[in-house]
């Protein structure tokens, strides 16, 4: 095991970095998409429940199936991998963003309007900062989930640690096959922990002291 | 989240008087001109053809039972609720058509519990409107400190706190400070003191009175508490359902001459007692008293009491502050008068209301109270007769005098609303009013 890791250390490190970078960038894209979508739908009860249904149903789609389906239109490589990871990452964030934006006390919004803030200023200066802790919780859930999903994208030759897992599984019983799978899994878990730690730190920096729990 | 740079977008459309030059004006008059609000799907209008003049620099209280449209009326002034028909005229300008957001920046707005933004510090909350108006950072910082002092909060201590670190009363104070931030000529308050305990409420009311004394804004305040209306209001507008204006007059005249049974019921029991809250002790004629200094012979004092036909003598210290209040019996037991201070003296400040004075009088053994002025110096004696006189005089005055410069207030669709809003039957008061009488 140590031998396996030792001899391929650079390769593992590179794959880990790629994996992490894929997840982190996809999370950023997903957060922007989810928050913008939530900002568009949260005022309308009908759109709101539609958004909730989409995120509930979307999460039931098997990631592996979606990855496979995307080969036809997008081929192999980074593009389908990003699409799948972003798709799954959006869902929990969207759900939390809608909940966060709708659960703000009406009187706060009313006083913001009452002192002359435009709708957009209310969203940007009042509602989003107040919903941010809930949105960030959604981002953390997404981060954990798509760490695993990103590994599956190795099936379409996407970047990251999935390669170790897939090659190991495909020749299970062969030399170093188990080591390869275990290395992939452990590295994914470590990356997930690191990312979660970073997100907690982000929360510390960005959540106002006035609403920190 | 704190935006450092002042907000750049400022859709300051139209409104010419929002320029800096206008800020020296303290209050502005407001006119609601035949304003109606109908909600879709409701047969009755929430506010029906209301014409109401709100004089500049005065506190106007809108009172009435829940659901009578008083809050709707208030929110139409800053167009948080857009009127279906009619005009809103602010300081002579028709503001019905201008951009609602820039209108609201010219009008302070305070709601119950302050409506503070929990994720912003006290300073950031207060700075919002000045920031939107593009003030410089130094000017905003100076203004924040100035306002915190105005509402009796120490800037150093409170500037950087968050709303949840403040008590209810302090939050309400910050709410008022925020509303006053850009020095708006008009302040709208929606049940501002509804969420604080009675003791804090009284203190906040007193502070509002003194702030108003200093600033002379036009304040429109919604409340369901008639006593609050009497205490704060220069004018009181009493509404019934559909924002029908039943009576719009000074507190004195509403108490002395309620327009109809509805108003009488709304005032509740004890209209006479409420009159007492309107007059201050220094506005009535106090009675003189026999005074003496410590060390005087008790027999001398007794003989002076005989001369004047009084029963009690007030003992004052060298700085004219009351020490004791001795009856004939107490004096007859003494040889010389001592210099002890009686901790249970019934003292009342001359700025107190007659209501407070009566309260103190009733618990004192003498049935009267000593009035003190600046530096606690003795001014005179107030007793029940003094108060009775003052009340009957005030009553007479309110009945006979027609309030000077009385503002207009009618519902256009029902011209007789002021004199006879309900043709027959007992007034359908909501239960909460009946129960409040007992409070």
UniProtKB/TrEMBL annotation, chain A:
GO terms for biological process: glycine betaine transport; transmembrane transport. It is found in: Cell membrane; Membrane. It is a multi-pass membrane protein. Its main location: membrane. GO terms for cellular component: plasma membrane. The chain crosses the membrane at residues 20-42, 54-72, 78-98, 146-169, 181-202. Coiled coil: none annotated. Keywords: Membrane, Transmembrane, Transmembrane helix, Transport. Pfam families: BPD_transp_1. PROSITE patterns: ABC_TM1. PANTHER family: GLYCINE BETAINE/L-PROLINE TRANSPORT SYSTEM PERMEASE PROTEIN PROW, OSMOPROTECTANT IMPORT PERMEASE PROTEIN OSMW. Belongs to the binding-protein-dependent transport system permease family. This is ABC transporter permease. It comes from Arthrobacter cheniae.
